[in-house]
């Protein structure tokens, strides 16, 4: 795909993207309506959305970024947009987005914007993970609408857990997915912060 076409996709995606606060409001609305962002409505996706909304609200209040990282964030002078592809039903997104928001809030040079994956397939297909449309996916966009870095769909430590399990058992089971959520809870965002700071150094 030509550079101008890619840049146009990115520019259009940012233009219609949501703020973090708008995304939280969307989650609240979906929960109240018993709905989700899934293009194929189901009771399961609705349940995931409800759980994820509650998880994000809790993490918004409890996630703390260690003050020792402030120096790294303050030293980051590049003006960028962190454009994140997500969906309300995605458990990894619910764990990761509150941490992403906290880091972005610490910097005057990072604009955090969010879009729904299934409404932005052309953007999603610019940043596949092993050929799959895995989310959440954070794209670091410069002022000329170029992708200069990325993060996701999970922090490296969690990716390793997933890869090891998939290699041993062939696929991710519901039990493993539950274990992964417990891993996120115990990690308290530390692995996410570590990987996000790599984007800034």
**CATH architectural group:** 3-Layer(aba) Sandwich
Count the strands? 4
Order of helices and strands: HHHHEHEHEEHHH
Let me know the CATH homologous superfamily: Glutaredoxin
Write structural notes for this entry.
The protein has about 200 residues and is α+β, with helices and mostly antiparallel strands. The protein has a single domain, classed as Glutaredoxin. About 55% of the residues lie in helices and about 10% in strands. It has a 4-stranded mixed beta sheet, with helices on both faces. The protein is globular. InterPro entries: Thioredoxin-like_sf.
Question: Tags for this entry?
Answer:
alpha+beta; 201 residues; four-stranded mixed sheet; Glutaredoxin; 4 strands; 54% helix; globular
Q: What is the structure about, briefly put?
A:
This protein is of the alpha+beta class and 201 residues long. The longest helix has 20 residues. The chain has a four-stranded mixed β-sheet, with helices on both faces.
């Amino acid at each position: 795909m030509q550079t101008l076409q890619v840049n146009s996709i990115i520019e259009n995606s940012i233009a219609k993207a949501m703020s973090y606060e708008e995304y939280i409001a969307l989650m609240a609305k979906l929960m109240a309506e018993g709905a989700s962002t899934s293009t194929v409505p189901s009771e399961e996706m609705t349940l995931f959305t409800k759980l994820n909304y509650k998880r994000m609200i809790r993490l918004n209040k409890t996630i703390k970024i260690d003050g020792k990282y402030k120096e790294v964030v303050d030293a980051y002078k590049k003006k960028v947009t962190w454009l994140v592809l997500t969906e309300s039903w995605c458990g990894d997104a619910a764990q990761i987005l509150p941490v992403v928001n906290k880091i972005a809030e610490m910097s005057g040079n990072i604009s955090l914007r969010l879009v729904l994956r299934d409404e932005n397939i052309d953007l999603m297909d610019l940043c596949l993970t092993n050929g799959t449309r895995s989310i959440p996916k954070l794209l670091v966009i410069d002022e000329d609408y170029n992708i200069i870095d990325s993060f996701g769909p999970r922090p490296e430590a969690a990716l390793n857990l997933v890869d090891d399990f998939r290699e041993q058992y062939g696929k991710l089971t519901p039990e493993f997915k539950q274990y992964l959520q417990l891993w996120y809870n115990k990690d308290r965002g530390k692995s996410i912060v570590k990987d996000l700071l790599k984007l800034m150094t």
